[in-house]
Design brief:
Elements: H1 3-13, H2 19-30, E1 37-42, E2 54-58, H3 61-69, H4 77-82, E3 89-90, H5 96-99, H6 102-112, E4 118-124, E5 132-138, H7 147-172, H8 180-190, H9 195-202, H10 206-220, H11 225-234
Antiparallel strand pairs: 1-2, 1-5, 3-4, 4-5
Helix pairs in contact: 1-2, 1-7, 2-7, 8-10, 8-11, 9-10, 10-11
């Protein structure tokens, strides 16, 4: 791949108006470097589910379904390490403390059934998640990337992430992932109020307050209301 291929992709990113064409464009471009699949997703933390965090899904369908159903993100060394660094890395370079576990080896072994043997990951800061990663996957036994090729991949990954963010903002409009009531419930939770106290403040039943809390947790893919509060604050949806 030559640098002009990268610049051409960056220029096209500005013109994409939907995620499907962007995904196809990126897949076609990185194929020149030996990558057939990719995924752009938030990195799950603290019980978060992967599926709601995926923004570009270019994995083989069967592999994505298995990965999600088996909750592989919790043990996959590549996924775990993506939450701990902002430095791009080859999958093969994930430290042994995360890659050489029984769970991580199992994930890597199952991935080979779908033609995924090696890869390169680009962790990124994210507005929507604690952190995101664009992970490129190859059927080659090992990735052989020059420093310049790694920079090319990082550049395309960053611009793809920026484009997804822009498309997401356009799609969400003024509504965002939470309703006004869900924001109110999280705001009072942030102030340390219990569901019972919040129900009295808002004039709702406690059951209704708990229902709104559940919906907010589901919107962010988190396990607890505290995590939902943190995520809402981080996204500037509420201001305690």
């Amino acid at each position: 791949m030559i640098d002009s291929d990268v610049f051409d992709f960056v220029e096209r990113c500005r013109r994409h108006t939907a995620t499907g064409p962007l995904l196809g464009d990126l897949l076609e471009t990185v194929r020149n470097l030996g990558f057939e699949h990719l995924i752009l997703s938030g990195v799950p933390l603290g019980g978060q589910k992967l599926a709601p965090m995926v923004e570009l899904n270019g994995w083989p369908a069967g592999w994505f379904e298995r990965y999600v159903a088996a909750e592989h993100a919790a043990v996959d060394g590549v996924c775990i390490y993506s939450a701990k660094t902002l430095k791009p890395f080859l999958w093969a370079d994930v430290p042994a403390k995360w890659s050489d576990t029984e769970g991580s080896r199992r994930v890597a072994g199952e991935a080979t059934e779908f033609g995924i043997l090696s890869g390169f990951a680009v962790p990124m800061l994210s507005v929507h998640h604690w952190q995101s990663v664009l992970s490129f996957a190859s059927s080659q036994k090992s990735c052989s990337l020059s420093p310049r090729q790694q920079v090319q991949l990082v550049t395309m990954a960053v611009y793809a992430g920026m484009s997804i963010q822009a498309l997401s903002n356009n799609d969400d409009g003024d509504e965002g992932p939470l309703t006004d009531r869900e924001k109110e419930v999280l705001l009072w939770a942030a102030a340390g109020k219990t569901s019972s106290e919040t129900s009295q403040i808002l004039g709702l039943t406690e059951r209704t307050v708990k229902w709104h809390s559940t919906r907010a947790r589901e919107a962010f893919g988190v396990a607890t209301t505290t995590q939902a509060v943190v995520e809402a604050v981080r996204r500037r949806l509420i201001h305690p």
